[in-house]
Please model this.
Amino acid sequence: MRLKLEFTTEPFDLDEPPAHAVMAREVALGAALDTVDVGPFGNTVEGTADEVLTLVSELLSKSLAVGATRISLQLNVVEGSGARAPEDTAS
Model:
């Protein structure tokens, strides 16, 4: 399964990136992911479920440790949800 994660950390500081935003970007850029897009107001990553879920854990713990007071996440399945159609039991 492939996942796409969009995230932001707060509080915002328009003058310079706060430590939690820098940490979140470093974690994302250092992860073994297929796609990493780092922006001033949000970040997007894409990879396998294991890669992205591992990133989420590290992102939350490290960003909170350096001052994040809110972390917003949006997680989407982009391929291979694993959901299967109910089997046809009628004969």
